[in-house]
Amino acid sequence: MTRSDFTTPEEVNEVYRRRARFYDWSVNAYYLIGFRWWAYRRRAIAALGLQPGATIVEVGCGTGLNFRLVQESIGLSGRLIGVDLCTDMLKQARQRVAAKGWSNVELVQARAPDYDFPSNVDAVFSTFALSLEPRFDEVIAKAAMALVAGGRFVLLDLRMPDNWLRNLASVLVWLVRPFAVSLEVAKRQPWKSLQRHFPQYNYQEGYLGIVYIAVGQQTRTRDVPVDSDCQQ
Description:
Radius of gyration: 17 Å
Strand content: 15-25%
CATH class: Alpha Beta
CATH architecture: 3-Layer(aba) Sandwich
Strand order of the largest sheet: 3-2-1-4-5-7-6
Order of helices and strands: HHHEHEHEEHEHHHEE
Distance between the termini: 36 Å
Number of helices: 9
Helix content: 25-40%
CATH topology: Rossmann fold
C-alpha cells in the first residue's frame, strides 16, 4: 500500500494536518463545479430533528464548519461534542468556538472508533468524514447504542455512483483527492452499516448519485423528513 492510497487513519491524518489552515477555503472552492456543500450540510442537520437543549455528537468535526448550523437548533442550553483525529483541524475548530463565544462546545481528539459516546445522546452526525475511517461500522454500532429512543444518526457523504458516471471513477476521485479520497476509500459503504444498525432508515441521493444523506433512527417518535428534493 502506498501513502497516496489514503486508506489508513495515519495517512488521512497527515493529509488533513497539511490542509487544516486552508480547509474552509478549499471546501468552498467546489462551488465552482456546482457542488453545493452548504445546501447538503443544511439538509443533513435539518434531518437530525434537533430541539433546544439537545446533546449532539459530530464525528469528524474538522474545523467546526457545521457548528453554527447546529447551534441554531440546540441553543446555548444544548451540548455539542466534536470528535476528530487531527489535532490541527481541532485547533482551527477551537479558534472558531472561541471567536463565537460558544460555551457549550466540547472538542475531543480521538479516532472515531475509539471514542466512547456519552449515554443518552440525542443525535449523532457526520459530514464527508466517516467514509475515511475503515472501522466505520464500529462507530455506527457504538452510536446506535448511545442514542436515546427517537435519536438519529445522520450521515452525509460521497459515494461511487451506480450510473454512467462510474466509468469516470478516476476523474471523480481526482476531484476530491485533496480530501484524502482514493479509489479504495470510495469503495466503502457506511450507509449500509447505518441501515443494519437502526430499525428506521431513510436514504436519498443527490448530485448525480455522488452524494447521499442517510438517516438512521432508533424509534420513530416524530417525523422530521429529509428534504425530498435532494438533487442539485
